[in-house]
Amino acid sequence: MSAELNVPVDPSNAACPEPGHKGMDYRDWVRRSYLELVTSNHHSVQALSWRKLYLSRAKLKASSRTSALLSGFAMVAMVEVQLETQYQYPRPLLIAFSACTTVLVAVHLFALLISTCILPNVEAVSNIHNLNSISESPHERMHPYIELAWGFSTVLGILLFLAEVVLLCWIKFLPVDARHQPGPAPSSHTGWQAALVSTIIMVPVGLIFVVFTIHFYRSLVRHKTERHNREIEELHKLKVQLDGQERSLQVV
User: What GO biological process terms are annotated to this protein in UniProt (predicted)?
Assistant: First the structure.
């Protein structure tokens, strides 16, 4: 006498991705495919948000370090510079040095202020290992301020620092081997030649810096544009697939 064995089958293990398989009709297969597409799109959006968060954090850290370093150098240069009391400096030179140093310190301190205020809030969220905590970070809302601090620290601040070096060379070397008399120093003086050489060297460096900055930002914008175009194409393909599956659900 043969006995029949009724083995229970787990319904979760009986699922099959093909619509023609037993246990899953076409409607269930379309619904499952729709959920998979929505889930993958949700994960890609979260990955993009986390990438923006890490980029904002890196920019804030770089801005704070650069601004603190360059503003400290500028303050030390102004305090430690020793003016020759017996030499009559050109008035435009002293005014330019004072204005450049003040603007340089103010720009870097402003960038440092923005980085100091926003960075702790971004760091607090980035240290939480939870995908859903990305909405608590203020980096999206504070994006203009982050870019402003980044531009002040890396572009405007460095250009002002190069100008500060040139003016400091003129103030430091101009009285060397010069006659103690009013008026501009002759070109035969050693100090005047040394200051001129520093200016000649710094002008190409400044031009190279400007050209590199423009080229870098153009390349970065081109890269972002291409990446956004690819994302738009992927979203368009996803929309076409979802529209086709929605029509299939309506037909079924």
Answer: store-operated calcium entry
Among the ranges given (37-51, 149-163, 169-183), the one the predictor scored with the smallest mean pLDDT? 37-51
Which pTM value belongs to this model? Answer: 0.68
Between CA 232 and CA 230 the distance in angstroms is 5
Q: Which two tokens stand for residue 150?
A: 């980044």
The domains of the chain are located at 54-223
The three-class DSSP label of residue 13 is: coil
Mean pLDDT is lowest, of 8-17, 93-102, 112-121, 131-140, for 8-17
Asked if 131 and 45 touch (Cβ cutoff 8 Å), the reply is no
Architecture of domain 54-223: Up-down Bundle (1.20)
Tokens of 128: 């939480």
Contacts of 238 (CB under 8 A, 6+ apart): 37, 41
Q: What is the pLDDT of residues 128-139, one digit of tens each?
A: 766 666 777 787
Return the closest-CA partner of residue 49 out of 134, 127, 119, 138: 134
Whether 137 contacts 194, CB under 8 Å: no
